[in-house]
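Throughout our pipeline, every protein is held as a single compact record rather than as scattered files. The remainder of this section carries one protein's record, kept here as part of the documentation.

===
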Amino acid sequence: MTMLQIGDFFREQEIFPEIRKHALYLMRSGDLDLKHIWDFIASDIQEQWSPIKYSIPDLLFMDQNTLGFHLCIHLMNMVRDQDDIHGVPAPTRFPLEQPVCNEKYIELRIKHTHDILHVLTGFNTSPVGETALQAFYVAQSLLPLSALYCFRDIGKHICSPDEASHTQMYALAAGLEAGLKAADFCALRRLEEFLSEDLDQVRNQLHIHVSVGRPWSIDH
C-alpha cells in the first residue's frame, strides 16, 4: 500500500499518480465497505438502466431556463477554453453497457454527471472550482479518490500557506457545505432526466444552494 507522507506534497507529480491508482484499485476491488452506495443504486443495477445520450445541438434547442441549455453553454465554454473533446457529452464518451458491476457503474455514472453537477452546484472548472466539486463528492460519501484530492490541497496549505491555498480552503469548505445540504448521492441520480426542466427548480428539488461571485463560482 502506498503511504502518504507530508513531504510527498512537494513532489506531487511523482507520488500522486501512484496514490490515485491505489484509490481507484480500492474502489474497483470491492475492498471498501460501500453498502450505503450499493443500496442506493440497487434498483438501477437491477433494471440495467443506462442514461440517455444527447448532443450539443439537442441541448442548444432547449429553453434557455433549462438545465440542458445551461449544460450546453458550460460544455461549449469548455471546448473553447480546454479541449474539443468536451463537445462530446460524457454518456457518449464513456458508454455504460449493461450489465456492469457496481463499482464500474459508480465510476461511469460519476463521469456522466460531473459536468451536470458543475452546472447544478455553480462550481466552475478552475482549480478552485474543481476542489469545491471534489469536496462536494466527499460530503456525499462517494469517492475515496475525492478525499485524496482534498487531502492533497489541505497538505499544500499546511506545508506552504499562501493566498492561493487560502482560496482553495474556502472552496473546499463551500463544497463540503453544499454536499452536506444537498440530497443524497446527487452524482448517482438520473440527472439526465432533468435536462429539459427548469434549472432553479432542479436545484431546489436536490437542495443545492449556489454561491455566486466567488473564485469557484461559474459567474466569477
